[in-house]
Amino acid sequence: MNNFPHLFEPIEIGKTTVKNRIFMPPISTNMADKGYVTDDLVAHYSARAKGGVGLIVTEVVTVEPTYVYLPGDMSIYDDSFIPGWKKLVDGVHQYGTKILAQLFHPAYMAFPVPGTPQLIAPSCVGPYYAQSAPRPATIEELHTIVDQFGQAAHRVQIAGGDGVEIQCAHAHGLLGGFLTPLYNKRTDEYGGSLDGRLRLCLEVIASVRKYCGDDFIIDVRISGDEYSEGGLTLNDQIYVCKQLEKAGVDFIHVSGGNTIKRGSSMPAPGTSPAPHAHSSEEIKKHVNIPVATVARINEPWIAEELIANEKCDMCMIGRPNLCDSEFANKAFEGKVDDIRPCIGCGRCLTGIMMGKRISCTVNPSVEDDTIAPAETKKKVLVIGGGPAGMEAAYVAKKRGHEVVLCEKSNELGGQLRLAAVPIAKQELCKVIKFMIR
């Protein structure tokens, strides 16, 4: 029996049917090799597709070769990337999951790789962590970049991808920077009014449509509200979404906050579920295309309620799908107690800026959930029933060993029980309960 009928109802996105409303948003992995898709990336995304996700939006995919966002991110700025992308698309499609590439130009947020020229931006205004001031992009450069977005989308299409996401949220990257008044101080046709700041995004959408046609998903990710003095407001973004719909966008991905106030765009542990749902709910009233919300939707019942109560049409569930690649399948089967709980700690991205690969506090096997059987079966004694002891016992048993776990107190959980006591640390109780189970 399906306990979450709204969550697992198919949905039409443009001319494509997606099998359920669990979408996976972009989360960097640092698994690419100089921009090229690796076998590890294919395995990572295929595991989430096998786990039942309806649609995956990949991590950042850069559309031109000059600026690098992260050393381990993917690229698609020339045809040499297409074979790897085909392998990735095929790996996801075998499970009936759709896949979009998040097309991106890092601009003033580019990684300072030696030899990188001066970074570009909407204006001589960069983020708080910029090492040096960027320069304003010229109109000629913007025309070139618009065409590069269209060509990149066409390569995704050639590889069999279902569409692309255009990232305009969080004052992040070139398009996000152009949209926000916090970074865009231009006085030409790409600045000033909201229409001027939106112009570059609309030109990118038109370029993608020119190269890819109508039977190709375009979604745009926005911040429904930047929660910042002088930043974009919900009223601004309602107007923006109306223009995006007119431009032929197939769905809106509503996030919130910005890179200036990092915690606003990546909510911390203890944050209330779905903190941006008030924005998606309001935007949904003003457009006729599907609207998704994102952030701290870490249990199936939350996603079900959001859709049932018309807060959104789909739920972007990111970190919980990293924490448990079988999140969707377990939800569908009603095995919610078997879902490894995401605590929202941000460990998955902690080392990303330092060049490390994705990781997870609760799931040490986040890159590859397969646990190989041991060649020689042994009797294993694990002393201590804290989180490390429980995980060791669990993995040893999964490998086929005969395991005995000893704990001197009358309860499992160790010091994690103390860690769960303070305000906003309740989610750690879920980890203890899951590990005991």
Order of helices and strands: EEEHEEHEEEHEHHEHEHHEHEHHHEHEHH
How many beta-strand segments? Answer: 15
Shape: globular
Query: How helical, in percent, are the residues?
Result: 25-40%
The total tally of domains equals: 2
Give, in spatial order, the strands making up the sheet with the most strands. 3-4-6-9-10-11-12-13
What is the percentage of strand-forming residues?
5-15%
Characterize the biggest β-sheet: 8 strands, parallel, barrel
Task: Count up the helices.
Answer: 15
- Please identify, by name, the CATH architecture of the largest domain: Alpha-Beta Barrel
Q: Stretches where pLDDT falls below 50 for ≥5 residues?
A: none
- From the N-terminal CA to the C-terminal CA, the straight-line distance is 23 Å
CATH class of the largest domain: Alpha Beta
- CATH superfamily heading of the largest domain: Aldolase class I
